[in-house]
Amino acid sequence: MQNARYYVLREDLTPCELDEPGELFIAGVCVAQGYLNDPELTARRFLRDPWDDGDPGRRMYRTGDRARWTSDGLVEFLGRLDSQVKVRGYRIELGEVEQAARHVPGVDEAVAVAAGDPRDPFVALALRTTGALDLATVRVQLAGRLPSYMCPARVLISEALPVATPGRSTAPRCARPSPTAPAPASTPDQQPYTLGEM
Question: Residues with Cβ < 8 Å from 119, sequence gap 6 or more?
């Protein structure tokens, strides 16, 4: 990108060495002023650029991408640091899907993943509940809180989800494709799925 500078920085915002993974930041005149009507997110993502000597007010954008500089002078993309995924052309923050699901009465825990073919994934959602939870009600509630492209194509309702030692769900953010889980049609199925089919 023209008129851009790329920094690969550690958590303390110091530059990484060659081949050392860090977070990718973009700076220069191409960087926007921030997110519209979202000062909190703007403050987290748009930081003052300490290496711009010409304009102390210029900002650098925290991309959320994990990257490293190579000895060839290239930036190698290593994946995401957060739970953002790309589904059918849209960048989706899976945490937003989970947050919307937690507002559904009866949902105790929610885990969203990008599932199916990695070249054309879809959003799948696993819900833990200790009571009765109706799939149709869940879909209606989610449709009222999320744009259509963020609504999960598949939903699993269960009394338990696999957890790691600290009690956090072990569900991967990008689930492996399963031969029993073809990509859903444009209209999501109205039946629940098992963990193996997610």
Answer: none
